[in-house]
Structure formats: structure tokens, C-alpha cells
Amino acid sequence: MEQFETYRKAKGWNCAAFCDKTGLDKNIYYRLKKPDERFSLRILVTVCVAFGLDLEQSTAFLRAKGRALDPTDRIHFAYAYLISRHSGISIEDANQFLAVLLSDLEDISKYLLGSA
């Protein structure tokens, strides 16, 4: 079974619950169920945070979707820090954390999680 489905079922989330918890729309939900679909890192990190995945699980999930966190990239480092130190945080709280961490950047909205 694909990792997304494994984590989704473990949470007991249907499409509506997933969309509510992540701030992502139903099109993303259905696309995530397809193993060959490509996504931005921001979308995939949103899923990792919403599912409460640890860094090892998140790394495996990202790798399965053809992505990875680069520790030399500031945004990627912020995502990795968020995942490793704040497991179980809501998307809203994660975005508040990222807004503070990345406050010196011009357009931080493109790095915030969910559909923000």
C-alpha cells in the first residue's frame, strides 16, 4: 500500500477530514493517492506535518514522491526543523512558527503550509 494511504488510514481521515486538517483541497487529496503524481515540497511537507510524521518517516515519504530536504537550503532546513522538533503541531501553528523563522524573507507566503 502506498505510504499516503497507510498514514491516512492510521489517522482515520476521509477526504473532508484531510482537507480540514491540512488546508489542502480535495484535488490534492485524490492526486496524493496516485503514486506517480508530482508535488511541490511545500505540499508534501504540509502532509508530513498534518500526519505528525517524524523526520525519518517524512524523509521516506518525500523520497517516495521524488523529493528530498536539502539541509543546505534555508527553507528546507526550516521544514526539517519543524518536522523534527514540533511533531503533532497544527498547520496553523506550523505556519506561525515558519513566519517567525523566515520573517526576513520578502514573500514568505509561498513557503507556508496548506493552501496559505
Structural class, from secondary structure content?
mainly alpha
**Global geometry:** globular
Q: Which value, in Å, is the CA radius of gyration? A: 13 Å
Write the H/E string, N to C. HHHHHHH
N- and C-termini, Cα separation: 30 Å
How would you characterize the largest beta sheet? Answer: none
Helix content: 55-70%
Range of strand content: under 5%
**Weakly predicted, low-confidence segments:** none
Q: Can you give the mean pLDDT?
A: 94
Record field, number of beta strands:
0
Q: Quickly count the helices.
A: 7
Provide structural commentary.
The chain is mainly α and 116 residues long. It has helices at residues 3-11, 15-22, 26-32, 41-51, 55-64, 74-85, 91-101. The longest helix has 12 residues, at 74-85.
Describe the structure using short key phrases.
mainly alpha, 116 residues
List the helices and strands and how they pair.
Blueprint: H1 3-11, H2 15-22, H3 26-32, H4 41-51, H5 55-64, H6 74-85, H7 91-101
In short:
This protein has 116 residues and is mostly helical. The protein is 59% helix and 0% strand.
